[in-house]
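User: Here's a protein and a ligand (guanosine-5'-monophosphate). What would the complex look like?
Assistant: Let me lay out the input and then the predicted complex.
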Amino acid sequence: MQNPKVLISESDISTRVDELAAQISKDYANKGELVLIGVLKGSFIFLADLSRRLSIPRHIEFIAVSSYEHGSIRSGAVRLVMDVRRSIEGKHVLVVEDIVDTGHTLLYLIDMLKSRNPASVKTCTLLHKAHRTEVDVEIDYLGFNIADEWVVGYGLDYDEKDRTLPYIGVIEPEE
Ligand code: 5GP
């Protein structure tokens, strides 16, 4: 099987992550510790790179969700399967996602986290399929807008494959 076609190169990702980290560091300067919540599994590489480039105090947490499916159709309903380990009350929170598609996952997370009385909840996603978004969800920091294609690499998988590719790729249909 051939490698996925490069959609966003390793160096383009790196440049954009630098820019996002600089902007986030500026926006949260002098606001105390920022709680970064990575949404497993897809965000683990993005979160690792982003968090190491911040120049502000930060604390790392992870959360895991799963989408309810009816057969192969995703219903849009989301379920929490792993929660953060520490209270976020009074803290500034940044949810770090790999990709926003319909937006249901991020909306669920924002609502759930806001109900815990943090100082603020903002969102950062590496990728956004803007044409597929079904719900009104605020993305505060965005890496790249992409078309409606299934992407892999840099943490994202296809059936658990290709997560550790250094670039964002698109799987080409078999000839
Ligand atoms: P949403 O709730 O926004 O529809 O879905 C977000 C989740 O769908 C992402 O966190 C990711 O797990 C999955 N997803 C959506 N599009 C893609 C894609 O192109 N590639 C991969 N690997 N996952 C995707």
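Summary: Residues 10-27 form the longest helix (18 residues).
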